[in-house]
């Protein structure tokens, strides 16, 4: 992602998917009171897991049959209790209580976790097949009311044993501005598409990057100051905004899809991931946007920008020393006075780092004297950062009940990193780069560079 302080967003990306399991007959020790697969567990797996763990999807095995679940029942229970599955980054912690709950929260309830634990502890019994719910049927793909679909110029074949990130440039052909009210990415080959992001190129800057096949390689971001429009990951569903909210798509703009391919050592069938759009009827009451704030290389005036860090060697610098654990870099940004001239509400938030990142917290400090506002509010924290599972998080509240943004408010990004061999994501990246040991890490877009970037999702009354 680029260092930009304005942008248009529609972050969608729902990431369900368990690493689960099961086998044959009722296990010794099960009782009539024990949860069973068909009666209790199968409906939960259908709801939470099978959009990925079903034939033809990206998960490594299917869970649509009892025999494919029993053998890893203990893993299922443990993953649920540790909340590593379904993958969901935003957490409430001792230092972060966001202003509202989250829309489309994927986390299991305590009752659901207890059910899986009880099933595993009783031997993961199958139960009576007559208790089974109707067979799993994936929801119909696609965005309801889709009005425009764009696709890459040519399909792409992922190959090799390392992940690939490829950008595809598309021209929606608009002769007048429209306002995106719904958006959905449709992977052409779900076996290898790990996730995808869509960026808005207002001025055609991507035209200078594209090759004869309509794309180019792009790790970290699209290679230009693009605004994020949409995102998708396995299990992703269409994002349909309220009728009075839209994100501007200017006439003549390009749309650039960045696809993260995970070929896993095999040559894939071709992929042609498509983007579906629908628009508001006329100009909407609220305009959705995103400010991508952070990646500051140096301090600003009044002590803002990059703040002093624990391992600074040559003045204030962004540097994560090789071998450093729990290294913290902090950045601050003061919202411009012009924000107060508009009616702007905080619709949601997101975080972005690379492989060395482990935890990111974004807080909003209120300008002194702001009526009815807490002195400081945590917007979002992702204490188990994972580059492979990224999304934006939307507050579950009506617009007028969301936090109001004003000029002078202070945004703080605190990013924590582990640049040692105890970080499994870094170890994997070092192996892919054929490096024997960690190296000093600086800001940048390459695999072993880092970022500290907040996504401030907002809606502004259209005046």
| First-residue to last-residue Cα separation | 30 Å
| Mean model confidence by pLDDT | 86
Largest sheet: 10 strands, mixed
Kindly state the percentage of residues in helix. under 10%
Shape: globular
Fraction of residues in β-strands:
25-35%
Order of helices and strands: HHHEEEEEEEEEEEEEEEEEEEHE
Q: Low-confidence parts lasting 5 or more residues at pLDDT below 50? A: 1-31
What's the helix count? 4
Radius of gyration of CA atoms, rounded to a whole number: 23 Å
Question: What structural class results from the helix and strand content?
Answer: mainly beta
How many strands appear in the DSSP assignment?
Answer: 20
Summarize the helices and strands and which ones pair or pack.
Layout: H1 37-48, H2 73-82, H3 110-121, E1 148-150, E2 164-170, E3 178-186, E4 193-201, E5 215-217, E6 227-232, E7 239-240, E8 245-249, E9 254-261, E10 274-279, E11 286-294, E12 305-306, E13 327-334, E14 344-352, E15 357-365, E16 376-382, E17 393-394, E18 404-405, E19 410-417, H4 424-432, E20 453-461
Parallel strand pairs: 8-11
Antiparallel strand pairs: 1-10, 2-5, 2-9, 3-7, 3-8, 3-10, 4-6, 4-9, 11-20, 12-13, 13-19, 14-17, 14-18, 14-20, 15-16, 15-19
What does this structure look like?
This protein has 463 residues and is mostly beta strands. The chain has four helices and 20 strands. Strands 1, 3, 7, 8, 10, 11, 14, 17, 18 and 20 form a ten-stranded mixed sheet that branches. It has a five-stranded antiparallel sheet with strand order 5-2-9-4-6, with no helix packed on it. Strands 12-13-19-15-16 form a five-stranded antiparallel sheet, with no helix packed on it. Helix 1 packs across helix 3 and helix 2 runs antiparallel to helix 3. It is globular, with a radius of gyration of 23 Å. The two termini are 30 Å apart. Keywords: Disulfide bond. This is Cytochrome c domain-containing protein.
